[in-house]
């Protein structure tokens, strides 16, 4: 006798409420894989936000295609190191070139930090995961990046300092929130920088070690007080490594949904 090897098809009935719930679940999973990424870029003394927007075009990774960038401009303020001339400045800078031991104005730095924190707070309130928030800054903007990260009450994705300096004395370390200390710092500095001396950049290492903050210090031989494409490419890869994504687990769950609808 010949056996019938055919298997009966099994039909699964799903009511419309269940169907809508499953569709909503699937869409939310897709949304998670395209999690919002926020990159805040802070310019240097006398510069402006729009003048730095070209930097965004250097970040071409598919992982960052949905990133939201913001390039704010500092307010106009008198600057001591420039004989009180009024220019775009996040905070007062008593002297330049900046070297180890240069004077700093901590009170104006802390005031500027409040503005940065307001921007970050608004972004997180819109649903962005704090760990997908990155602050980057060049020169004075780099100093403000460091200050903003170290005084923020939450752990964020990271802070990238380019040719910046430490705008604090070590006495303020006790004020750094514990969550802030978990935010990684990437420090990039050219060895030929004659405006913010390379040694001033290196001074960040013992300062951050004392604070208990992880810092990766990258030296760029021959680079002056400017940005290089090599520097930007490394920052891009550094951000990518720190993105919070559940893409692999989401794909598995979406495959489960597909199997459910095609069960037989």
Overall number of strands: 8
Uncertain spans, ≥5 residues at pLDDT below 50? 1-14, 16-33, 246-264
End-to-end separation in angstroms reads: 27 Å
Oligomer: single chain
Percent strand = 15-25%
Count of helical regions = 7
Major sheet details: 6 strands, parallel
| Major β-sheet strand ordering | 2-1-5-6-7-8
Radius of gyration: 24 Å
The secondary-structure class comes to alpha/beta
Instruction: List the helices and strands in order.
Output: HEEEEHEHEEHHEHH
Helix/strand layout:
Blueprint: H1 16-33, E1 37-42, E2 67-70, E3 76-79, E4 85-88, H2 106-125, E5 133-138, H3 140-151, E6 158-162, E7 185-190, H4 198-202, H5 204-211, E8 215-220, H6 229-242, H7 247-261
Helix pairs in contact: 1-7, 2-3
What would you say this structure looks like, in words?
The chain is of the alpha/beta class and 264 residues long. Helices cover 35% and strands 16% of the residues. It has seven helices and eight strands; from the N terminus they run αββββαβαββααβαα. The protein has helices spanning 16-33, 106-125, 140-151, 198-202, 204-211, 229-242, 247-261, and strands at 37-42, 67-70, 76-79, 85-88, 133-138, 158-162, 185-190, 215-220. A six-stranded parallel sheet has the order 2-1-5-6-7-8, with helices on both faces. It has a two-stranded antiparallel sheet with strand order 3-4. Strand 3 (76-79) and strand 4 (85-88) form a beta hairpin. Helix 1 packs antiparallel against helix 7 (247-261) and helix 2 packs across helix 3. The longest helix has 20 residues, at 106-125. The chain starts with 15 loop residues before the first helix and ends with a helix. The relative contact order is 0.14.
């Amino acid at each position: 006798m010949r056996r019938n090897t055919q298997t009966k098809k099994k039909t699964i009935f799903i009511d419309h409420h269940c169907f809508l719930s499953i569709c909503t679940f699937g869409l939310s999973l897709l949304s998670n894989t395209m999690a919002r990424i926020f990159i805040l870029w802070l310019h240097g003394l006398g510069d402006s936000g729009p003048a730095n927007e070209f930097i965004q075009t250097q970040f071409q990774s598919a992982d960052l295609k949905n990133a939201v960038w913001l390039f704010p401009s500092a307010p106009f303020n008198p600057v001591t190191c420039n004989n009180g001339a009024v220019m775009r400045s996040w905070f007062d800078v008593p002297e330049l070139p900046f070297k180890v031991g240069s004077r700093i104005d901590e009170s104006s730095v802390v005031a500027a930090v409040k503005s940065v924190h307001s921007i970050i707070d608004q972004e997180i309130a819109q649903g962005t995961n704090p760990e997908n928030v990155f602050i980057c800054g060049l020169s004075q903007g780099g100093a403000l990046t460091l200050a903003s990260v170290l005084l923020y009450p939450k752990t964020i994705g990271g802070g990238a300092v380019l040719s910046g300096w430490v705008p604090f004395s070590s006495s303020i370390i006790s004020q750094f929130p514990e969550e802030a200390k978990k935010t990684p710092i990437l420090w990039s500095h050219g060895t030929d920088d004659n405006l913010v001396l390379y040694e001033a950049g290196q001074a960040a290492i013992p300062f951050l070690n004392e604070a208990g903050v992880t810092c990766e210090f990258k030296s760029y031989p021959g680079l002056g007080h400017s940005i290089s494409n090599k520097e930007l490419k490394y920052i891009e890869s550094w951000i990518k490594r720190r993105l919070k994504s559940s893409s692999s687990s989401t794909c598995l769950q979406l495959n489960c949904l597909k199997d459910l609808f095609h069960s037989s």
